[in-house]
Each structure stands twice: as C-alpha cells, then as structure tokens.
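Model it.
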Amino acid sequence: MKPTFSIRLGVAILGLVMAGSASACSCKQIGVENLVLDKQLALAKIVVAPPTPTERMVSLFDSLKAIFSGSRTYPVKVLEVITGQYETKAITARASGSGDCGVDLRRGQTYYHLASPAASGEPLHASVCNLVDEEYVRQVKAYKQRPKPELSPVPPDSWPEVFRDDKQTVHADYRGVTSDAHGRYIWILRNFTGDGRIKSEKSQLQIACKDRQYNVVSRHEFSEINAGGDVISSVNLSERGSYTWLSTTSDVERLLPGVCSDPLKRPTS
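Modeled.
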C-alpha cells in the first residue's frame, strides 16, 4: 500500500474564532515551517510580571474593570525570542469563561506566545489559540537548525523548460530524479508571470507512473523568480501523515517521459 501525505495546508488562527450561537472556541495551529519563514509572525517566551505594590492596591479596581470590559492587560517581560521579531511590554487577554478562546494568565508564570508583531509599546493579544506548548517550541527550534536545500535558488537555465503558458513557465530537475518502491520523485520550478506577491514556486512531486497519478511531497513559495528572494511559505507535506493521489494534469503529463522511462532517460534540454 502506498504511504499517504496530506496536501492540505495548515491555517493559522491567532485571534478569536466564534463557532455558532454557543460561542465555542476552535483553533488550528500554524505549521512550524510557515511560522519560521513568515516575517509577519513571531514566537517568544514571556513571563507575566509579578504585581508591584501599587498594582496590588489597584488590583481590585482592575478586576472590576475586567468584568465590564471582558479583557485585562498584563505587563510582561520577554525572556527569549525564538523566531521572528517580538517586542512588547504588555499583552491583553479575555477571561477563560467568556467563551471566545479566552485564557486566565497568572502573575509570575512563563508562556510561549505566538503572535504578529505590533507597534512598539502596543499590547499583543493572548488566547488559548496562540499560547503554545514546549513540544511545539522544540519543533520550531529543530526546523530552524536543519539544512534547507529545498529553499535554495535554482540557477537560471539549469533546469530545462517543460511547459509554458500565459501564466507560468515550468522547469524540471530531470538530473535529480529519484525513486523508491512507491514511485519516482522530481523537483519542479514554476515561474509566474503575474504581478502577485509570489513570483515562483518550487515543489517536489511523487509520481506513480503506472497509475498516472501524482502527489505533492513539499511546496515552497518565493518572492522572486527561480526560487529567489524571500521565502514566503514552506510546507513539507510528507511530514503531515497523509496525502491524496491526484490524476496527472497536462503539465505533469509532460514530465512522464523523462521521469517514468526505465532505465531513466533524463532530458537535459
């Protein structure tokens, strides 16, 4: 039986999610790959500062205010920036009983907070959706340390062109084709002609030659052509546990002569 990997991308929900009239909280955590590469996200270890004598005197007033406003502001200290740019002196949180992903923070307690950077001095929002555990942090640090050849640029004209239309040009790394008992693997590069934020995409495909099916093992998006510039998104779908086989499309069909020949005949132009 062929192994399966998911091609569905994870969606980050950093704020609040209302589900129906019951106001239930539902969260989907962002993948560690996208967290590390997305310049609009950050992860840090913070501690909620113990109250000062003055704060103890006004704590009753704050508690009453929180009952009416539904939220409370906590002074925090940043202990470690794990990835991204994280700088704040306070975070806000709604009480856990409010039904909208609220969380009760404790003075003197440390947390791992995943958030979007805010203006200097502005409080960030904390909820059960963006306070992550130590295992998630371990995965983030491991991903940052491992080599990432899949994110390296492709030298111009080093991969032959296999398909072109008014939206994209597709190139393939025939010299790098590999195989195992389940299929053959090839890297392709798509250079897009539009003016969008994503200028190119580098993907590894697994192809089942006899069944004329394929799946995407990993997908990486870049701000410049030929996998250059900034990495906008990077997802290793083979680590997600399942995938879906797809019928070959017209551009994937063009890869088959060079990928599925036995012994391999890898075109160079």
